[in-house]
Write a structure and sequence with these properties.
The structure holds 2 protein chains of 2 kinds. Chain A is an alpha/beta fold. Chain A has 10 helices and 14 strands. Chain B has a single domain, classed as 3-Layer(aba) Sandwich (Rossmann fold), CATH 3.40.50.970. Classes of the chains: A alpha/beta, B alpha/beta.
Chain lengths: ~325, ~300
């Protein structure tokens, strides 16, 4: 099953199991079912609980927060994650802050889904990976879809936490199959919010990457193993922030070289935060500083040959690890 | 453009309404006094001159209705919940505070009352809450905003959605003619009525400092919001008799005199001098005692 279909089924399951769940977004209703078809069939099945909205990203995130405060649960789809900037106030100053600023815990069960990333030729304002701008906001969780994680479980976990979340979904990943078991070279294991992908136990190289990078990370891992004879373990967290590395402590304990890859642009990044966290934990055991792989400090051009230069490629990951 | 408030004779006012208006007035005056004495931290925005609006509105609200307030929200709170000790404790960070002193003056969440400090931010949230009310049929959402708030895009996103989706949302606009230091004539093109008309949203404006008149003019509108499940905007012409926050008033003497003349207090003191004097003594003493009581409490705790 492809990731897009899995997400669609997960939303069906979520709404079927919990009548308090409402979904809002631009063009999410049938027959269109959303720009990436992730919400297909939901409005036919759940009627007024699914609402196609005006082009008002800030407004609909606010409405979602209002529903959440009043006792419902809300999933808001923003058509392209680039437009999440229009909802920054509602996310940072209202939804996230409301969990704490009234002096007591206030639950805000709100998920803002964000189709994200480049490699589809959509140009500078429809291709970005803005995860880093949401890292470190008190009261806001940052998730990213991966082909290993059950989205329905993640959605349920987010709602149960009462902490609002932005949920990034790589637009190329939509077209890829969900993964389990292994690929012939590596085994895929999912544990406590992490996917562990490895060819052997206790590798000296460990790569951490969000779910959207999985296809490129796996391609790099295969080349490293087959061509360069380097076994590298890939760790994919479902929740990017706050990041809890406890479930993969054993994998990290064996590491001598750690690499972090992400699709966001260089500087002030998620990866830098991961490196800070891991340096504290692994200092003294590593034989080199943590390597960081990201897009360059650049906008994302439209033409395919230019876009390829400004997005992370498998070769970039392989080169960083095999240096 | 809203002209100066001209009031010939006020209708007789109930003791309950006048007491509450005076209670809010003295609460606000006490805050400004505490600031002058250096006994309050941060900032505050008093509603001097606007106290009668929430007193008029609150009587038309039901317990299950949600109220959304803003930076200038003490009157909105005190008109709905007669809990000045808890509000003062919140503002001064003392035991018994509404939100343990974390939210302070601008960020209060108490039962079905919620305020936020960012202009216009509450309106889309209020639409979400109103949509739930529409479904459950158990109330409406009421959001207070000012004339300055109409510069925010969120207001228009919210009005559009509310009208499209039939959200029972009452927006009360306290049009005090000034946004911090900028006259509304310099920050708002066209009119609030015209903007509402563009969305097909019901709008009604009242120019009176008479609490009974304001309430009577609002009552049918609230009924339409409840019964027809639709939004409405109620615009009340008021004067901001005090500074934006504290000691930051740059208005001319003439402008200040006009604001003072448009203050409901001046009208009530003129028309009902004995009633105002009698109740004012009670409320002043009550608030003075509340201040003494709250400031003697231990600091609030937050875990």
């Amino acid at each position: 099953m492809r990731v897009a279909e899995h997400l669609n089924r997960s939303l069906h399951l979520l709404m079927e199991n919990d009548p308090s769940v409402h979904l809002l977004g631009e063009d999410v209703s049938d027959p269109y079912g959303g720009a990436f078809k992730i919400t297909k069939g939901l409005s036919d099945r759940f009627g007024p609980r699914v609402m196609s909205t005006p082009l008002s990203e800030g407004g609909i995130v606010g409405v979602g927060a209002g529903l959440a405060l009043a006792g419902d649960r809300a999933v808001v789809e923003i058509m392209f994650s680039d437009f999440a900037t229009l909802a920054f106030d509602q996310l940072v100053n209202f939804a996230a802050k409301s969990t704490a600023m009234y002096g007591r815990r206030v639950d805000v069960p709100l998920i803002v889904r964000l189709p994200t990333g480049g490699r589809r030729g959509y140009g500078p304002t429809h291709s970005q990976s803005l995860q880093k701008h949401f890292i470190g906001v008190p009261g806001l969780s940052v998730y990213e879809m991966s082909p290993f994680h059950d989205a329905a479980r993640l959605f349920t976990e987010i709602f149960a936490s009462g902490t609002p979340a932005v949920f990034f979904e790589d637009k190329v990943l939509y077209t890829k199959p969900m993964l389990s078991g292994g690929d012939g070279l590596h085994t895929f294991e999912v544990r406590d919010g992490w996917a562990v992908i490895r060819a052997e136990q206790d590798t000296e190289d460990v790569l951490l990457a969000p779910g959207g990078l999985t296809d490129r990370a796996l391609a790099a891992l295969r080349d490293l193993l087959v061509e360069d004879e380097i076994a590298c373990t890939l760790l994919v967290p479902a929740r990017l922030h706050p990041l809890d590395v406890t479930p993969v402590a054993d994998v990290l304990a064996a590491a001598r070289r750690v690499h972090v890859a992400e699709d966001g642009t260089a500087s002030g990044t998620w990866g830098a935060e991961v490196a800070r966290l891991l340096h504290e934990r692994l200092w003294g055991r590593l034989t080199a500083p943590i390597t960081h792989i990201s897009a360059p400090d650049s906008i994302i051009p439209t033409a395919a040959h230019l876009e390829a230069r400004c997005t992370v490629q498998p070769a970039d990951i392989r080169r960083a690890i095999n240096t | 453009m809203i002209g100066a408030v001209r009031e010939r004779t006020l209708t007789p006012v109930s003791e309950a309404d006048l007491s509450r208006m005076l209670r809010i007035r003295h609460f606000e005056k006490a805050l400004l006094r505490l600031f002058e004495q250096g006994r309050l931290n941060g900032t505050t925005h008093t509603c001097l001159g606007q106290e009668h609006v929430p007193v008029a509105v609150s009587a038309l609200l039901r317990p299950k209705d949600h109220v959304f307030s803003n930076h200038r929200g003490h009157g909105h709170f005190l008109a709905r919940y007669d809990e000045p000790h808890a509000l003062l404790a919140e503002i001064t960070g003392r035991e018994g505070a509404l939100c343990n002193g974390v939210g302070g003056s601008q960020h209060i969440y108490h039962e079905r009352f919620l305020s936020t400090g960012v202009q216009g931010e509450s309106l889309p949230v209020a639409v979400g809450v109103a949509l739930r009310h529409r479904r459950t049929g158990d109330g409406i959402a009421c959001a207070y905003i000012g004339d300055g708030t109409w510069g925010e895009g969120s207001v228009y996103e919210a009005l559009n959605m509310a009208q499209l989706w039939g959200a029972p949302l009452l927006v009360v606009v306290e049009h005090n003619r000034i946004a911090q230091s900028t006259p509304t004539t310099a920050q708002l093109a066209g009119s609030i009525a015209g903007r509402c008309a563009g969305f097909g949203v019901l709008h009604h404006r009242v120019e009176s400092v008479d609490v009974n008149v304001v309430r009577a003019e609002l009552a049918p509108l609230v009924e339409r919001v409840r019964a027809d499940k639709r939004p409405a905007v109620f615009e009340v012409s008021v004067h901001r008799a005090g500074p934006h926050s504290k000691g930051d008033d740059t208005r001319t003497a003439a402008e200040l005199a006009e604001a003072a003349a448009g203050d409901w207090y001046a009208h009530y003191a003129r028309d009902f001098p004995a009633q105002v004097a009698a109740l004012e003594e009670i409320e002043r003493a009550f608030i003075d005692a509340a201040v003494e009581n709250v400031l003697a409490r231990p600091l609030s705790e937050w875990s």
